[in-house]
Recover the amino acids of this structure.
């Protein structure tokens, strides 16, 4: 007896649920691995879940003088991170009903809205470090933007559209698509962007408590209780979303479900989490190999990413691409 | 827009892009030692490219060329320059007239000129795709930047040597079947340049006690 296929809407809901429930797991594995690489025992792999459930039970404290924005922003950003998985190929090779609602730029806008609202709530708190974090994250976010645009241009030149599903299909179609320099360079540039956006080592210490080097982490210093849980969960989701885009669109779009059969979708979920953990362990190794750059050297790192993205576009115009 | 290049063309293009990227890395490397190591890496990629062409296109002369360029450019030249450098222990880093981000932006502009000017020539080659020629033109143009903007002898020498790498790639595209004698003469040119630059470095360091060329505005009197 064959089991009925899942409805596309159901698969789409599963995409969101996978990101929602898998994100803390991926973060947990990465921080565990990071600790092991440094010779520490490290937190339990499931620690992020415990942290979240603890934070949800704690009381919420709001700084004096802050307005409704302080408590709304975490919810807004969390909502944004729930929307993006609808737009990208998380589990399937084919577009789902809401998948064509927005292209890569659309997804980028929603991620930017999330980042903006978190920065705003940090600024709203009135605390100097949170404000510093908000201002820094906006500054570096603006500097990364041109790189993302050029990566999108490269994708558009490759596929003729800027839909993530189309690029994934192009990459899957043949080996020569995988090794063409335009695609390789765009993938490298996007890898560097992910490094910046997830606050990884050359840019930011991921788990440090030193406020001077903080960028993204500093924004949430004043939050507590359930809003802090939402912010933490959101940042884990953002990380998994960016990993998913890098893996399922640029680097290794294999193992995705080609139909709605429950078996294929389940395999898609498992393979996504496995690939994300693999990618995360690469990031953990990078974390241990390099030192954090000074804040004013980050522009050089971003300039390098920009350079790679521009080269990706340039090689297309010489015909070889 | 042209269609997808073949896997061989793609890999060859990625290798030439790697050469260009190491050129850019040289541009931003603050330490003289890391510049030299990057030059060695770049030469290694050129050697690998020559071997790949030799084996896929059956041009036996290129094996000899690859061997020569490995010995000269990957082993001999870098170790010679590193030895010269170890005698001048005072300076680890060179100096630059421009900051790194503006240098990178300038380099992007310069390499764009290289890409578009050569890309529009439509040179067809049996050995490598046309893109490789455009990229090698970009390598040559970008190699001028450290020569112009870096104010120390070592960076300028390395800039010149890596310019030669760009020329080698260009010659692989345009004339992969160039007689071996010409290629070898070409490499001896490089050896000559190493001798000359080595002399300049030693002489300069002996006279001014530093590798920086900024002292050179005080020649009179």
């Amino acid at each position: 007896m064959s089991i009925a296929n899942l409805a596309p809407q159901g698969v789409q809901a599963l995409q969101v649920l996978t990101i929602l429930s898998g994100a803390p797991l991926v973060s947990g594995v990465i921080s565990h691995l990071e600790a092991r690489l440094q010779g520490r025992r490290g937190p339990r792999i499931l620690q992020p879940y415990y942290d979240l459930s603890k934070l949800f039970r704690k009381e919420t404290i709001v700084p004096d003088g802050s307005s409704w924005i302080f408590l709304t922003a975490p919810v807004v950003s969390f909502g944004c991170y729930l929307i993006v998985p609808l737009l990208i190929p998380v589990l399937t090779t084919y577009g789902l009903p809401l998948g064509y609602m927005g292209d890569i730029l659309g997804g980028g806008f929603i991620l930017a809205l999330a980042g903006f609202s978190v920065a705003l709530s940090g600024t709203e708190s009135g605390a100097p470090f949170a404000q510093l974090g908000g201002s820094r994250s906006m500054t570096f976010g603006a500097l990364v933007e041109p790189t993302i645009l050029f990566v999108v241009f490269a994708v558009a030149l490759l596929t003729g559209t800027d839909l993530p599903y189309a690029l994934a299909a192009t990459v899957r179609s043949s080996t020569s698509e995988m090794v063409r320099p335009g695609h390789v360079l765009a993938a490298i540039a996007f890898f560097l962007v992910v490094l910046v956006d997830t606050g990884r080592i050359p840019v930011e210490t991921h788990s440090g408590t030193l406020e001077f080097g903080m960028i993204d982490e500093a924004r949430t210093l004043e939050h507590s209780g359930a809003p802090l849980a939402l912010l933490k969960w959101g940042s884990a989701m953002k990380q998994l979303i960016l990993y998913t885009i890098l893996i399922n669109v640029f680097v290794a779009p294999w193992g995705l479900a080609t139909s709605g059969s429950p078996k294929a979708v389940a395999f898609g979920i498992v393979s996504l989490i496995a690939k994300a953990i693999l990618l995360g362990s690469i990031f953990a190794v990078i974390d241990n190999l390099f030192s954090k750059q000074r804040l004013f050297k980050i522009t050089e790192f971003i300039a390098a990413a920009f350079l790679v993205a521009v080269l990706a576009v340039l090689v297309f115009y010489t015909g070889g691409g | 827009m042209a269609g997808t290049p073949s896997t061989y063309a793609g890999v060859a293009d990625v290798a030439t892009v790697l050469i260009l990227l190491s050129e850019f890395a040289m541009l931003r490397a603050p330490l003289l030692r890391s510049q030299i190591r990057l030059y060695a890496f770049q030469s290694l990629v050129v050697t690998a490219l020559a071997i790949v062409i030799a084996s896929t296109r059956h041009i036996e002369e290129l094996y000899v060329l690859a061997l020569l360029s490995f010995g000269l450019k990957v082993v001999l030249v870098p170790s010679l320059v590193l030895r010269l450098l170890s005698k001048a222990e005072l300076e680890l880093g060179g100096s630059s007239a421009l900051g790194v981000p503006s240098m990178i932006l300038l380099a992007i502009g310069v390499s764009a000129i290289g890409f578009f000017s050569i890309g529009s020539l439509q040179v067809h080659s049996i050995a490598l795709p046309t893109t490789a020629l455009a990229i090698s033109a970009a390598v040559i143009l970008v190699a001028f930047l450290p020569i112009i903007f870096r104010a120390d002898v070592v960076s300028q020498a390395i800039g010149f040597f890596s310019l030669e790498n760009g020329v080698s790639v260009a010659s692989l595209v345009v004339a992969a079947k160039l007689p071996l004698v010409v290629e070898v003469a070409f490499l001896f040119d490089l050896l000559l340049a190493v001798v000359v630059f080595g002399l300049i470095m030693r002489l300069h360091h002996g006279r001014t006690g530093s590798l920086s060329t900024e002292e050179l505005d005080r020649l009179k009197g």
Remarks:
- Residues 180-208 of chain B form the longest helix (29 residues).
- The mean pLDDT of chain B is 82.
- The two ends of chain B are 62 Å apart (CA to CA).
